[in-house]
Amino acid sequence: MKTLVTIVLLLLLEMNTYAQGNLLPEINSDSLANEVKKEFLHSWNAYKKYAWGHDGLRPLSKTPYDWYSSPLYFTPLDALDTMILMGFAVEADSTREFLEKNLRFDKDIYVKNFEITIRMLGGLLSAYQLTEDRRLLDLAEDLGNRLLPAFKSPTGMPYVDVNLKTGATRGTVSNPGEIGTLLVEFGTLSKLTHNPKYYNTAKKALLQVFERRSKLGLVGEGLDVVTGRWTKTDSHLSACIDSYYEYMVKCWALFSDPECKIMWDSSVVAINTYLADSSGGGFWYGHADMNTGKRTSTWFGALDAYFPAVLVLAGDIDRAAKLQESCLKMWNAHGIEPEQFDYRTMKVASPRFFLNPEIFESTYYLYHTTRDPYYLRMGQGMFDSLKAYCRVPGGYSELKNVITKEKSDRMESYFFAETLKYLYLLFAPPKVLPFGTVVFNTEAHPIRRIW
Ligand code: DMJ
Predict the structure, then answer these.
(1) Among 78, 221, 242, 412, which one carries the catalytic annotation?
(2) Alpha carbon 219 to chain centroid distance?
């Protein structure tokens, strides 16, 4: 009888241990970090073989693409600091030398101010800080000066495009995301060159958006930089608005600028009042009209999955963890996340997948803040599906449809800058980049606050 009781007790103890997840297999972070490095090399070697000297690679046709009539080397520049962090020193040196020899901005092309700022200016500043190679800062300064004419609108909010040679501008209808996601890069350029003009210009643009918030404290998704009027009043956390909020928190962390904190503190109240939504079960953020606060749609998507990371940075771990659970549900609905997901019906609203980094970024922040291995497992599972559905002989491909898993012939440079970097840093030993010692720009280029 005594033996039976002991056996039952032991069984109960084991069940309890299992319920607590203690019997789940150990996560081997080192080996996962090495696997991410392997996937980086797989994609990087494909880029080098089929698209070297161009902005990016189409991984299915194994052909290059460029954004403009003359290449700006988006992929090598976006990939450079990831290579450095992964310890690929020889590769990083030769890439840096290639860029220093070939990258010039004196080109008669109209470029997107936002994309060039987050990918190229951010990439140059971060690589300069990691290598202390002055030529990278010179390139960043030259680029910063060529982008500045974009801000010469009546409101100080930048035009969408600027000509790198002539300073001519075009595109008056922009959005909070593109206008308000410039201060990490322009501010850092100011700090490193000891010239406040970049900081002041980008800060003014951010303030201009904030000052146009509605009475409810929300912003819309379209804004005319000449008239200062809203062109679209739908409010959400997704594309066209997303990193406007991210930079309030990050600029507070990076520059200790109290106005950035004030903007965030006031915005997050409106976000949690009008956009947060538990209507479909779980915790989500949907769309609402910026003036009435009325729900306009119950969509959430791959891009919105950056918000748990921002909540962690702002200190709201509780909401961050709850939202991450919803992001995981969205991912698990079809084994990989869609561009848009209706959380009320739990159905895909837009089926594309662009190799986005945001969900990995949030997993990285949640793991390093909580040290809960649950997030390592989450990252491992998503990494596995990325390999299963997107890995092709020519690198990694986007998906036309997450339900059918039909592929699409594009590999964006942020796959190297962000997706693979956040995955690597999730698993890598802390000494690679001690958590909290840098602020990542929205393209995951790490900036050190060394001023
Ligand atoms: C990246 O270029 C940046 O993260 C940007 O802020 C928004 N989305 C893409 C990747 O999804």
Answers:
(1) 242
(2) 20
